[in-house]
Specification:
Blueprint lengths: L1 H7 L3 H9 L6 H14 L5 H6 L7 E5 L5 H16 L4 E5 L4 H13 L4 E5 L6 H16 L4 E4 L10 E6 L1 H14 L5 E4 L5 H16 L16 H13 L6 E4 L2 H13 L9 E3 L16 E3 L2 H16 L7 E4 L2 E3 L11
Parallel strand pairs: 1-2, 1-3, 3-4, 4-5, 5-10, 6-7, 7-8
Antiparallel strand pairs: 9-11
Helix pairs in contact: 1-3, 5-12, 8-9, 10-11
Length: 340
Amino acid sequence: MRDVAERAGVSVATVSRTLAGNYPVSAVTRARVTEAVEALHYVMNVHARALSGQVAGPVALVMNDITGPSLAHVAAGVEQEAAANGRLSLVCATHDDVEREDSLVRMMLEQHAAAVVLVGGAELTKAYTRRMTGYAQALDAVGSRLVLVGRPPLPPGVPATVVEYDNRSGAFQAATHLLAAGHRRILFLGGTQINTAVQRRAGFLDALRAHGVPFEEELEISGPYTRASGFLRTRDALRDGLEFTAVLAGTDMVAVGAIAALHEADLRVPDDVSIVGFDDVPFASDLTPALTTVRVPYEELGRVAVRLALEKQEHLSNDDYVVLSTQLMVRRSTRSLLDS
């Protein structure tokens, strides 16, 4: 700033006032300062301005993997809402490393982030609750806000906002669609012990009970929410001689893997086996046949997370726990057995 002042022939205070735009200066002075700034490629120290309270803090989005199609849409929603509120958005990946998550949250504290949004399922354990509570309290102490998206909620009194989507209802809708079509032996490719997988399994079991269909343990095969896992689990089920007329996959990526295994076994979708996914990622409707799946409002999750965090910061909102609805998208990957 001293270099700018010297080049423009004005005081450092005048440069500061001109750049801040909160003090009247003459048009001639403003032009001289602007010319000097451009000539010297001067960039204001945003961190210093943040420390002095002159700029709004950024919104930090922390997720396990930024390449996943569903989480990318959460990031898009966060960025859109942050930009609409004049905030910079920072996107960070943990790669499933708890220590990295800890360091990223500490870094966001140092950066005076207005909110830290943690995205993605997690297993509800004492260690998880203790760690998230620590994050929430540390952020709250500096006027920031922890927002958990799609993660297990924390005990009452912990200063955090939770934005979830209705996994249980979505899985209930998906399973009901298959059961109402006459399917009774449904291969359920669920997830591990993360909260989203637990909720989806509960919805599947709810639907079985509602239709008076007994749960058969051999038809449940759990595993990671990946395409490779969906392929291997379905291939192994077929090789083991397991009989089923439909597959309910925990995610669309698992469904894609399952479809590949069915094709490898010369089984047609949906003529031989119906299949339903979960997420409604962008390519789901472009598959052949188009995938019946449960739509999750991922972009809206990101927008709501930021909106609630900033409103809480301004004391405009009392919402600490919000659940968004899911919707079954019926396409061509399922068929009714009742018409056969």
